[in-house]
TrEMBL record:
Belongs to the oxygen-dependent FAD-linked oxidoreductase family. It comes from the Eukaryota. It holds the Pfam family FAD_binding_4. It comes from Lineolata rhizophorae. Keywords: Oxidoreductase, Signal. This is FAD binding domain protein. InterPro entries: BBE (IPR012951), FAD-bd_PCMH (IPR016166), FAD-bd_PCMH-like_sf (IPR036318), FAD-bd_PCMH_sub2 (IPR016169), FAD-linked_Oxidoreductases_BP (IPR050432), Oxid_FAD_bind_N (IPR006094).
């Protein structure tokens, strides 16, 4: 090729690149490699304004691969493999997330070392945030350069909402401030806890215990209270007694997409306050802190139980499970919250938490199930006790939670289904589990925790439900094809069985199928349109995007990860 030809081709590609770039700024987020992508000098300047808190992504498993990051270290990789399933491993790594599907298997310790380690779906940069100003600077920079914005707290989100290719993430994990307050307002007078965006469930429980109060959080100790949990609704061991996480909120301190610091409460920016109380994480604004009600300390009883399905006793096994299901209305009405797992191998109650009840009372509520086990002479373990504090109970019976190596889908189960048609519910669970799926349930009564189902944005069907049912299938760290098939099994085979029992029903947006058809109705119910209008008010440019979040249907992620308007 002659010199002119080379020049011509270069010019042409420059022009094409420019055209492409223009298109991408109007309809797509700017992506690494685009002309619009900030220069190294831009990133350095951004880092300086942040006082050095900008972290360029190195995938957590780069030590397990030869190429790209020059980090290969066989010993470090083996050590990482050993701790991979502990949430803490990923929580402290700025870009790491736990929902395996959304890591796209682009770099993990179970793949051979000679497979490429790439960023895949991981963010490009994280801002190790410590205050509202760090949020504001990140908002301004990402907006000016049209870069995708993500908020990551712990990275627990099952739908991959805390990651995104080509994104800059506000990483909130290190914002651990927590304090007691005596809150006074027209809507609440009493004790409250104000906590920073990075506070985890166990930290809140420990802090509350040290101050002789009880705070509401989830089952898993390392879920972030202020992030996806409370913003998504939030169930837990105290739900039947005190309601959902979203029902405890007094005020939010946020930074909006435009970079303004606001307080959202029932009296100020009440629409935003409402949306953040259960309308989904990473969608309306970036939360700096949450102030939540706390409750006077109580004694707490708790019970756990397990019994096997050996195959030989299958009919009797399922009858016991049916008896357990039928006992749930009495349990939740007595203030008990219940979490359990039914697998092809057996049943595990993990646990039932009974605030303000005695051991004798929880034993009574468990008696129908225990009597059936005795009657059928099925071997089982049962443990119950009364504890002086909620924290003691939590420490004694909460099961350790690993990173989920499953994919999942979910469905709310209305109280009426268990009251009127427990047989068909049982038959459906049995059919799914016999087919190899995992079934996990959480049972609660949160009907009277709020004056009306519309008091907060959390799906109104929480208030009519006795249970959130979750179904799980397997995940492979080495074979993407299996993962796609297993996830389709959830969408096309498992959830339709629960949907058939619950027409017009819903699901918990934090523990649902990311491919859920009609996600607007299923995850948000009658609140969707109001939530969408509130998002338009506070985030008119859709700076916040989260898969299955409100407004997310206006965007699609392309094969290479680029986020574009549809
Ligand atoms: C093992 C395990 C156990 C669980 N147990 C429970 C349970 O008992 N009860 C329950 O209700 N749920 C439970 N969940 C679901 C959990 O509530 C969700 O995964 C939730 O999204 C986690 O929130 P996070 O902030 O910790 O995680 P992240 O993945 O970091 O964030 C989740 C979402 O919230 C957004 N977000 C985070 N921080 C902020 C912020 N400061 N401002 C704005 N947006 C933010 C993120 O952008 C993302 O969209 C569990 C999940 C797992 C994996
Ligand atoms: C930001 O600055 C800090 C401190 O100077 C440095 O350690 C870090 O590597 C920088 N980040 C990036 C992405 O350059
Ligand atoms: C939990 O994770 C740890 C660390 O990866 C692992 O050793 C352990 O086997 C896991 N436990 C279960 C029940 O999966
Ligand atoms: C990696 O190594 C294995 C065996 O050592 C080989 O079979 C495979 O082809 C290699 N893969 C790549 C991507 O080089
Ligand atoms: C995820 O993996 C698929 C299959 O390997 C690939 O085609 C796709 O580009 C990847 N996505 C990202 C964002 O890396
Ligand atoms: C993030 O900032 C905290 C201080 O807030 C610091 O202790 C920690 O080392 C930083 N982490 C990374 C990965 O930069
Ligand atoms: C389940 O429902 C059936 C039919 O409505 C009823 O006869 C039975 O008593 C219920 N089971 C239990 C354990 O309550
Ligand atoms: C129940 O809790 C007790 C007390 O902590 C514990 O020893 C036991 O292993 C637990 N059993 C189950 C089935 O979780
Ligand atoms: C919750 O309890 C109240 C009062 O006991 C009852 O009226 C309501 O039906 C229960 N709701 C659910 C969903 O179990």
């Amino acid at each position: 090729m002659g010199l002119y030809a080379v020049l011509f081709v270069s010019l042409l590609s420059l022009l094409l690149g420019f055209v492409h770039n223009t298109t991408s700024t109007s309809s797509c987020r700017c992506f690494p490699g685009d002309l619009c992508w900030p220069t190294p000098e831009d990133w350095d300047a951004f880092n300086s304004t942040l006082g050095g808190k900008l972290v360029a992504t190195i995938p957590i498993a780069s030590v397990c691969h030869y190429d790209n990051f020059e980090a290969y270290d066989e010993e470090a990789c083996a050590a990482l493999r050993d701790i991979w399933f502990f949430p803490e491993t990923h929580i402290v790594w700025p870009s790491s997330i736990m929902a395996p599907f959304f890591t796209n298997n682009s770099c993990n310790p179970f793949l051979p070392a000679n497979v490429s380690c790439t960023l895949g779906n991981y963010v490009s940069y994280s801002v190790n945030a410590s205050d509202a100003e760090d949020y504001q600077k990140t908002m301004h920079f990402t907006r000016r350069h049209n870069i995708r914005l993500v908020v990551k707290n712990t990275g627990h989100d099952y739908n991959g909402k805390s990651t995104g290719a080509g994104a800059v993430s506000i990483w909130t994990h290190n914002m651990k401030d927590i304090e007691m307050q005596t809150y006074s307002s027209s809507y609440y007078n009493g004790k409250a806890v104000k906590m920073g965006a990075g506070v985890e469930v166990h930290e809140l429980y420990e802090f509350a215990d040290a101050h002789d109060v009880i705070a509401v959080g989830g089952n898993c100790p390392s879920v972030g209270v202020v992030g996806g949990y409370t913003q998504g609704g939030g169930h837990g061991p105290l739900a039947s007694k005190f309601g959902l996480g979203s029902d405890q909120v007094l005020e939010w301190e946020v930074v909006t997409a435009a970079g303004n610091i606001l307080t959202a409460s029932p009296n100020e920016h009440a629409d935003l306050y409402w949306a953040l109380c259960g309308g989904g994480g990473g969608t309306y604004a970036a939360v700096v802190s949450l102030t939540a009600k706390v409750h006077p300390a109580l004694t707490v009883s708790a019970a756990n139980m397990s019994f096997p399905n050996t195959g030989d006793n299958a009919d009797q096994f399922w009858e016991v499970v049916g008896t357990f299901h039928a006992s749930l209305p009495d349990m939740v009405d007595a203030g008990v919250s219940v979490i359990w797992l039914t697998t092809p191998d057996g049943f595990t109650l993990m646990p039932a938490t009974a605030p303000d009840l005695t051991k004798a009372e929880i034993d009574d509520l468990m008696a129908p199930t225990l009597d059936k086990l005795e009657e059928y002479e099925i071997q089982y373990t049962y443990f119950s006790d009364e504890f002086p504090t909620y924290l003691d109970s939590y420490h004694a019976v909460n099961t350790p939670w690993n990173v989920s190596d499953h994919q999942l889908g979910g469905r709310f189960i209305p109280r009426t289904l268990i009251d009127d048609n427990n047989e068909s519910f049982l038959a459906t669970v049995r059919n799914m589990v016999d087919g190899g799926a995992l079934f996990s349930g959480v049972a609660f009564n949160v009907t009277d925790a709020v004056p009306s189902p519309d008091t907060v944005a959390a799906h109104p069907l929480w208030r009519e439900s006795i249970m959130h049912a979750v179904v799980g299938t397997g995940y492979s760290y080495t074979d993407e094809q299996i993962n796609i098939e297993e996830q389709l099994t959830i969408t096309n085979e498992l959830l339709p069985q629960l949907e058939a029992l619950t027409p017009g029903g819903g699901a918990y947006l934090n523990e649902g199928d990311w491919r859920q058809p009609n996600f607007k109705e299923v995850f948000y119910g009658s609140h969707y349109d109001s939530l969408n209008a509130i998002k338009a008010r506070y985030d008119p440019e859709d700076r916040f995007y989260a898969l299955t979040g409100v407004g997310s249907d206006r965007w699609a992620q392309r094969e290479d990860g680029r986020l574009c308007r549809v």
